[in-house]
What we know:
Elements: H1 7-10, H2 23-34, E1 42-43, H3 46-53, H4 57-69, E2 73-76, E3 79-82, H5 84-90, H6 92-103, H7 111-114, H8 121-128
Antiparallel strand pairs: 1-3, 2-3
Amino acid sequence: MTRSISVDDLTMTHPVYTLNLTGTQRRVLEWLTVNGALYSHLAFDPETVAKDCGSSVSTVHEALNRLTALRLIEHRGPEYRVNPRFFFAQNPEVAQLVLDALQAPDVVPDDRAQKPRRASPADARRRRQVRSVS
């Protein structure tokens, strides 16, 4: 027997506000999210993050270490990725949309979809005209 998935299954057990994040840790997490680390692993220069977040490079390194320890981000070599559970916790309506998509029936093509596309009258006229190449 399979159990149905709920929005709570996609979010975090501990809400972000209970983690006591510093301002820099929040800014680094936001910077990673905005710059695409939510969708794939991202390699970046900590100096760039420090400049964008208004922090020192050592503070950014400390923030990355703590965020990794909390598993808010995943660290693989020189690349980082934001935990999708964090994103869904911040956007429960998107989590619900994902669940709805997983439970919705698949689209099934009908007979008309199997036939070749019908050309419009303008397309048919264009095909009949012979134009010189010069």
